[in-house]
Amino acid sequence: MTAPVDLPSRLAGRTVLIIGDVMLDHFVIGRVDRISPEAPVPVVCFDHEEYRLGGAANVAHNAAALGGRVEIIGLVGHDAAADTLRGDLAHAAIGSSGIVTDPARCTTRKLRVVTTRNQQVARVDYEQDAEVSGDVEAALIGRIERLAGSTDAILVSDYIKGVISRGVASAAIAAARKHGIPLLVDPKVPHIDYYAGATVITPNHHEAEAVTHMRIRTAAEALAAAARFRERACCESVLITRGEHGMTLLGPEGEAELPAEAREVSDVTGAGDTVIATMTLALAAGASLVDAAKLANRAAGIVVGKFGPATVSASELTGS
Question: Does the pLDDT at position 310 exceed 80?
């Protein structure tokens, strides 16, 4: 079950507007040779550090790596992390005119202490996740209204860090409807009522179970949960990602089971970002829902073989 062989080449130049919780992933990497005499924890001898785009910014990075033209709407603080994030977005050729600065917040940053063998020792989260309101919410909605008219698809990446309020979600869905373009959502359970009218929602199986109160262990159970999820969320289509069990798609034209394509799993961090970025770009390129899901499934199988938030290129999708 494969997507058309020319589909990856059709992604280049398609425009995607991404709305969501941008983050900066900060990795402090070192060697572990001993346990601390002060507490039963490893002592990490610093070697180097690196930054990667995270959250909705990683979704945008995935879309850009596939050749898409990407604009992102999100929220940062007035701090050094915001400067780093903006610089990394520019380096990845991601438009950031939709980024809103809120001096009352810090930029969301996840600091991970990792060994040179890619073993995570600890994580520190810098964040303020209160839902936006007032002038900040109005500024985000204004960015949506300004940028939606020049895009082929809209993607909502909800990490429940404050950007996706009911008002922001409603503005995104209204903009997609106004311009006749698809809108896809990577959801969070507490916001399930925000997404009514979405074209596609892509919960993982844990999220689908939480929304539907149904157990998902088999393909039949996944399909039944997808049907209930679609009814509960009031969306057109549902793609449930099930890790090593693949994906379950339910749309207006029917259903599909897609077996997992991963050959070697190194790190599942950000795999959902890759799935929805690929699927959105494929729909923007005119692919059918099933073909878009097949391509996203292939992309997920590649990205889980990489460490940390990572991307997939069009050439990797074609095997060239």
Answer: no
